[in-house]
Amino acid sequence: xxxINGYLVAHAWFTRRRNKRNVIHYDxxxxxPPSEGNNLIIQATLGCHFNQCSFxxxxxxxxxxxxxxxxxxxxxxxxxxxxxxxxxVFLADGDAxxxxxxxxxxxxxxxxxxFPKLTRIACYANPSDILRKTAAELARLREHKLNLLYVxxxxxxxxxxxxxxxxASPRSIRAALEKAHQAELKVSATVILGLGGKTRSKxxxxxxIELLNSAPITYLSTLQLFLQPNEEIEFLRKFAxxxxxxDDTAILQEQRKLVGGINPPKPVIxxxxxxxxxLALAGNLPKDRERLIAQIDQALGNDNxxxxxxxxxx
Length: 314
Hints:
Residues 32-265 form the Radical SAM core domain. The chain is α/β, with parallel strands linked by helices.
């Protein structure tokens, strides 16, 4: 699961239509990426198939379930009555791409029939989900408009990935991103600042830069490590060495080094708009590198540019 790159939602579509009849009643908690905030959400699964990442609290209270197609189809019908002009759909919960390809295609076909203006279907995806699909399967999904995958890279350090129980290595992540690219799927990848703590900060950022410079992606977002009290104990146990959280200055220095070091195989749209971040940034890399670094430097010299701590959340 791509970890904390989603907000807990009473999202815009649900809020706008809460007084209409036949709205969807979601199985909470429900998360989605920031960029899916104004789009329709359909729960194809409940929970997360992997659900072992030590830094993530999103679906710990849920048992993974592939929701029956008849229930999903009924909710698509309800949503179409309330919002027939919907153009983009996000398939929740944690890693819908783990579903069999034929199952996903049936959902995509029903969405296309219900929403004539549909242009895009997106979902979270583990690297292992991508690698399990054949090239032909990924191409078929793209043809049915499932053409954006949200993938949690988290770190390019093999040691840190093991310590956080990511279930992936830099090599497998790189292979998954390359496979998605070959299938002409867009990938929105996330990196978690502060994930190595103070002692492994250099290893974390250097490894992440190396990975990003060798793997084609379309979008890149940074998040900031945020541990819920219940998850912090498990995170520290699995990390198996002293771990010290970094302050905002150290996090910004990590972000500065990351932005300064990225020379991706193709231009990347960069964002740090998730609510966990101390500093919101937006630009394209490498084109806007100097401007983004200047913004970080300005924030390093004046914490008035930072998001107040009480506004930071998952």
